[in-house]
Write a structure and sequence with these properties.
By secondary structure, the chain is mainly beta. It contains seven helices and 70 strands. Keywords: Signal.
């Protein structure tokens, strides 16, 4: 194609602004594999650190460089670039040029690190005269390399990096390709109108590697050309520019060694260096053996005899230390590849003491106890105070001067402190016991008694025992002159046995205990662990001579009966307010204070599985089985369903397996029969509410354990309106489950809607008779309000079986106060005394006659408390006066 061209000569000048836009940094980056700053041409700064090298690539000459406060260490002008060495951590650089201006305070875009190479590529303007054609024909040149990232120079001017392409005027060009650690590649190309020029180059590596190992041991430090590399043998180096290098290995206890290697293009040079040992061994022994070894101030783990390996060649200070011996230090010269032997005799600095006491006594050396009866041991030579100490004996002491290498034998005889005891009794011939050991009969003078406290018992058949505690003083005679009271031999026992026993405040031993006590009243105290009981007993000529007391501890336990296991919760007695102050028509009013004694309650409602074991063991037939039906829910009221009994669930389905669901379809009499067979009873209504409220915790909750019913109960608002296994909801504070809802529960009380207004204070058990029995607790069939702990219900004892009613058992605590009744109308005063005749009704079933010594019960106000002493039992009773009836219980005062 013919193109007319108009050529004009245009002279122009590039105008440069004050902001030095004619000098620009095209790129700034680090070259990690360039070893120039680290190995091939390193430069150190004034601090001895290796400088970083900035290769500033430009075709212009005449540049001047200024650093920041750390300065510039060295500048070298190389082909196509300046090499500027700066200290590590430098931050900026200023570039100046006479014609191009100034690039001021250029801040490095990467942190400057020690011995690292960086490349700064510049783009600069220049003054030029250009002949500009009206139209210039251009063509592309495309240059690619393997690997990429190589610098491209065209006509000795930097043009960019591969992969590279540029639209250029037609013509001939020289090019050069450079990349660190690769051989340069150069050539020429021509651009014509016909097609673009494509140049592809595989750059040849100008580097290799070295794999360096050492023997006989690895772990030697590797230096290249005298510079540390941070590598230890065996190791492969980073890229090394092809050429010669000096490899140096250093390792403690070995001589340093250097060798030259040739690194070739693309190859790994292997080098193994044999290192010569620079150490020997030290064989050390001592007499005696077992001495600690301190070598050049360092305590070794070894003790004599031993061989210390790899000891550096040369002179060393060796110190041996052993208890009881004088430390010894010596100089020893260790030769290369040799074992030096050393045997040292240690000088003792101790003597030996052999001490015997008569009688056996504690032995002290300089106030420190070292033995009892005898002692043999070493002591460092010097002065010592030897003492023998024994209770009720005079102190024996001796000063000794112990000399190293000697054995001193010492015997210390202790002199006892004696006193005497003169015992006289009326009548005489009483047995004398000192601390439980017989010492003859009265009258008697007992001599040579060691001083101190003695427990004295004076006893004679037909008389009371006199118990005294005396103190024997040295060289004095203690007098005892006692009249034995008339008395009787009695035995005091406890359950469990082994309780500590005090009689009238004096410790006499442990139960069972037999002795003669004087006639009259005695205070008995029994202690078993945390349980402490106090009783008053009466000793009479014809009264009881055997006394037994229950001091078993009160805690949760498992009640077992013929395969049935029931977990029982111990409920500590206390007071609480029963019921609520609501409208008079409510049967749970008024709110009134009640006191409940200790008792046990079933943790869970009685289950089908447990009831099945009862039936299996007794062949018991329930009321539903005898009558042939029970009740299931109807549309408006309960309906009779034939064939239903305890073996069926709340929906009338027979159980395939007797499980842990609460048993239902029982009458009140069925529940009572099971409870008595298991060794328990049904709960009283007052006990039930006390336990539901958390006992002594006095929970304020609406339901048993929570104000949120779904946490503690199954009720008719539950997702599943059916019986569930016991214990699946949260318990209350006592650890009792399902009291507010699963099935409702029988109580032992007869029901009376007005009973709360007339209830006694202590342990109320309900009316003496009635038609209906009390039901407490909610069930899966009840609404929320019916599940509240205050709510009461009742059912006929004759038709009480139901699909939503069950029970749990209770049991009297062995430590509980036993409730009784006394009819005050039967109390009659005996002239000139406070003896009364009363009829005791125990558990409303047992009658017995008792002599009662008490304050008069007449004219006492309702609720007043008086005390009665039952002389035949030797037990106080606490009585709540309530009209003509006083509620009585044992009180352990």
């Amino acid at each position: 194609m013919s193109i007319n061209k108009i050529i004009s000569i245009v002279f122009f000048f590039c105008v440069f602004g004050a902001n030095a836009q004619n000098i620009n940094v095209k790129s700034f980056y680090s070259v990690p594999d360039d070893m120039t700053a680290r190995v091939t041409a390193p430069v150190t700064d004034q601090n001895g650190d290796k400088c970083a090298l900035i290769k500033i690539r430009t075709t212009e000459k005449g540049f001047v460089f200024d650093g920041d406060m750390l300065g510039i260490t060295k500048i070298s002008h190389e082909v196509g670039e300046y090499w500027v060495y700066v200290p590590p951590k430098a931050r900026k650089i200023t570039l100046k040029h006479q014609k191009l201006g100034v690039l001021d305070n250029y801040i490095y875009s990467e942190p400057i690190k020690e011995a690292t190479v960086y490349v700064m590529e510049l783009i600069t303007g220049r003054i030029t005269t250009t002949v500009e054609a009206i139209e210039t024909i251009k063509q592309y040149v495309v240059i690619s390399t393997t690997p990429s990232g190589a610098d491209v120079y065209i006509n000795n001017k930097y043009a960019g990096q591969t992969p590279f392409d540029k639209l250029m005027p037609l013509g001939n060009y020289n090019y050069r390709i450079e990349k660190s650690m690769y051989h340069n590649s150069a050539g020429v190309f021509s651009l014509t109108e016909d097609e673009k020029q494509i140049i592809e180059q595989n750059l040849q590596p100008n580097f290799g590697f070295a794999f360096i190992s050492s023997s006989p041991e690895k772990g030697a430090e590797i230096l290249i050309n005298g510079q540390p590399t941070g590598l230890i043998t065996p190791a492969k180096t980073e890229r090394l520019k092809s050429g010669d290098y000096t490899i140096t290995l250093r390792k403690d206890l070995y001589e340093s060694v250097s060798e030259r290697i040739q690194v070739n293009d693309g190859q790994t040079t292997n080098l193994n260096i044999d290192m010569s040992a620079d150490f020997g061994s030290l064989k050390v022994n001592s007499n005696p053996t077992g001495a600690e070894i301190i070598l050049d101030g360092n305590l070794l783990q070894q003790k004599t005899p031993c061989t210390i390996l790899k000891v550096a060649k040369g002179m060393h200070i060796l110190k041996l230390k052993r208890k009881w011996y004088e430390p010894k230090s010596v100089q020893v010269n260790v030769m290369n590849n040799e074992t030096t032997e050393l045997i040292q005799e240690l000088m003792p600095i101790f003597g030996e003491l052999k001490i015997i006491t008569n009688p056996k006594a504690d032995i002290y050396i300089n106030k420190a106890k070292v033995g009892n009866g005898s002692y043999q041991g070493r002591q460092v030579e010097g002065y010592y105070t030897i003492e023998a100490r024994l209770d009720k004996h005079h102190l024996q002491s001796r000063e000794v001067n112990l000399i190293a290498g000697e054995v001193q034998q010492i015997q210390l005889d202790l002199r006892p402190k004696y006193g005497s005891l003169n015992v006289r009794t009326d009548p005489f011939n009483a047995t004398i016991k000192l601390n439980g050991i017989k010492n003859g009969t009265s009258p008697n003078v007992i001599r040579d008694l060691l001083v101190g406290e003695y427990h004295v018992e004076l006893s004679k058949d037909g008389f009371g025992t006199v118990v005294k505690n005396i103190n024997i003083q040295e060289n004095e005679t203690t007098e005892i002159n006692e009249k034995l009271p008339d008395g009787r031999k009695v035995t005091i026992n406890s359950n469990p046995q082994g309780a500590e026993l005090r009689i009238d405040g004096a410790i006499v031993g442990k139960t069972p205990y037999t002795s003669t006590l004087s006639f009259g009243s005695h205070e008995i105290q029994l202690v078993n662990g945390k349980r402490r009981e106090m009783e008053q007993i009466q000793i009479t000529q014809t009264g009881n001579d055997r006394f037994s007391f229950d001091v078993s501890e009160f805690c949760d336990y498992t009640l077992q009966k013929q395969g049935v296991k029931m977990e029982m919760v111990a409920v500590k007695g206390g007071t609480y307010f029963m019921g609520e102050n609501v409208n008079a028509y409510k049967d749970y009013a008024p709110k009134h204070e009640i006191e409940i004694p200790d008792f046990f309650i079933g943790k869970y409602e009685v289950t089908v599985k447990q009831f099945s074991e009862f039936v299996k063991a007794t062949a018991y037939v329930t009321e539903a089985e005898r009558k042939g039906f029970s009740y299931l829910p109807g549309k408006r009221e309960a309906r009779e369903v034939k064939g239903i009994n305890w073996r069926f669930n709340e929906k009338g389905k027979r159980y395939k397996v007797f499980g842990n669901e609460p048993v239902v379809h029982l009458s009140w009499w069925d529940a009572k029969a099971f409870s008595e067979w298991a060794g328990g009873r049904l709960l009283t209504e007052a006990e039930w509410e006390y336990a539901a409220r958390g006992g002594i915790h006095k929970d304020p909750y609406k339901y048993a354990g929570s104000d949120v019913i779904v946490d503690v109960a199954w009720y008719d608002g539950s997702y599943e309106k059916e019986i569930h296994e016991v214990g699946r909801k949260k318990s209350n504070a006592l650890g009792i489950y399902d009291m507010s809802g699963n099935v409702s529960e029988f109580c032992s009380d007869w029901y009376d809607r007005d009973y709360y207004a007339n209830s006694p204070v202590f342990d109320p058990k309900g009316p003496l008779e009635g038609k209906y029995k009390v039901i407490r607790g909610g069930s899966f069939y009840f609404s929320k309000s019916g599940c509240e702990v205050i709510k009461r219900a009742s059912v006929s004892s004759n038709i009480s079986r139901s699909w939503h009613r069950g029970f749990r058992i209770a049991k009297d605590s062995k430590t509980a106060k036993i409730a009784s009744r006394i009819n005050t109308n039967e109390v009659k005063k005996t002239p000139n005394s406070y003896l009364y005749k009363a009829t005791l009704k125990m558990e409303a079933t047992i009658r017995e006659e008792a002599n009662v010594n008490s304050k008069v019960l007449k004219n006492k106000e309702k609720g007043e408390i008086v005390y009665i002493l039952n002389k035949s039992e030797g037990i106080f009773y606490r009585v709540w006066v309530d009209g003509v009836v006083g509620y009585m219980s044992k009180s352990y005062l």
